[in-house]
Amino acid sequence: KSPFNDVQIPRVSLVEFLLRDMEARWDATALVCSNSGDKRSYAELVSETRQFAASLQRDMNLGTGDTLALYSPNHCSFLPAMLGPLSFGGCTILRWRRKRRRSRKS
Which residues face 67 on adjacent strands? Predict the structure, then answer.
């Protein structure tokens, strides 16, 4: 038995848990892309996540139990793309595209 108290697990989806309290900081910056400097507010993050989820359901007929594979650079649009399928019970498989490092010549 752990010496710590039991953790209370909320009965909501991961996306609901992450997005539910964002209205309190709606206009604050949620994400900053280190490569481009692009920024997203919490309101934009929630809106883009919901729009992407709706598009996947409407245009690609994805639903609960379906899987979306993402191959993406590290950018502000990545998080809504990852959270979109999770919001309707789908699954997201992730693959980041890394920038190649230049090898140093001695």
Answer: 91
Among 70, 71, 73, 87, residue whose Cα is nearest residue 13: 87
Neighbours of 80 (CB within 10 A): 21
Q: Determine contact, residues 66/85, Cβ cutoff 8 Å.
A: yes
Q: For 60-82, how does the pLDDT look when each residue is reduced to its tens digit (9 = 90+)?
A: 999 999 999 988 877 888 899 99
User: Is 98's pLDDT higher than 80?
Assistant: no
**What is d(CA 31, CA 8) in angstroms, rounded to the nearest whole number?**
28
Q: What is the pTM of this model?
A: 0.76
Using the predicted structure, report yes or no on whether residue 55 has a pLDDT greater than 60.
yes
15 exposed, middle or buried (CB, 10 Å; 0-12, 13-18, 19+)?
A: buried
Which tokens go with 26? Answer: 């709606």
Q: What are the residue ranges of helices labelled H in 1-106?
A: 14-19, 42-59, 78-87
